[in-house]
Amino acid sequence: MTDKEKGPSREFPGILGIIGPLVALAAIAVAIALSLSWFTWEGNALSDLGNYNNGLPAAIIFNVGLVLTGILLLVFTYWFLRTITDLPTKIGLIPFFIALCFLIGIGVFSENAGDIHFVVSVGFFGSFPFAMWFVGLGLFRFRNLWWFSILSIILPFFSIYMWTSWFGGVFPFWTGNSIPEITTAFTGIGWLWLIWLLYDRSNFSVITQ
């Protein structure tokens, strides 16, 4: 595919749908690499990486990465909302827009900020599944998107299972919640990348015309 043949999803700001999550994943990976002396997946929360008392370089990279990811995906989401014409899908993406604001809040208000960090963290993990449900239900009207609609509805329940299992002590060796956090994040990232791919391949023509 030549540059002239590339669709808007592969240009700015469409490409931010791919780049944004990669920034967060890279920031998390680097922060963990700088925190190997104390961080464990079983015993910590990902937010511990953003605690400035646990290591300034790692915390800066982690928090800046989350803020930058949130900003990049807000730009992408705004662009996507202007691209689509289907009202139910537009409404369905509102919780995702809100979730991104919470994501920025996690980076701005680290664990050092106190209770507000807990509020924005719960807001983030609790809001974007609703975007998946709302969008999935709205797209069920289109037969060629049934598979994506069903996937959008089912995926959040995997996250719910991980969190309820953690809270319920199903995995007693998990004293931290980083595993439920990262698995929940991956469901959201995978869902977003599928949206990008479907748009890139013109499978979303029914909601963009």
Biggest sheet details: none
Sheet/helix structural class: mainly alpha
Residue stretches low in confidence (pLDDT < 50, at least 5 long) are: 1-6
H/E element sequence: HHHHHHHH
C-alpha termini separation: 24 Å
The pLDDT mean sits at 88
Helix content: 55-70%
Global geometry: globular
The domain tally reads: 1
What's the total count of β strands?
0
**Treating each run of at least 4 consecutive H or I residues as one helix, how many helices?**
8
Question: Strand portion, in percent?
Answer: under 5%
Please give the radius of gyration in angstroms: 18 Å
What do you see in this structure?
39% of the residues are buried. The protein has one domain (3-208). The chain is built from eight helices and no strands. With 209 residues, it is mainly α. It has helices spanning 16-33, 56-83, 87-92, 94-108, 115-139, 146-167, 178-200, 205-208. It is globular, with a radius of gyration of 18 Å.
Concise overview:
The chain has 209 residues and is mostly helical. The chain is built from eight helices and no strands.
Features:
about 0% strand, 8 helices, about 65% helix, about 210 residues, mainly alpha, globular, single chain
Itemize the secondary structure elements and their pairings.
Blueprint: H1 16-33, H2 56-83, H3 87-92, H4 94-108, H5 115-139, H6 146-167, H7 178-200, H8 205-208
Helix pairs in contact: 1-2, 2-4, 4-5, 5-6, 5-7, 6-7
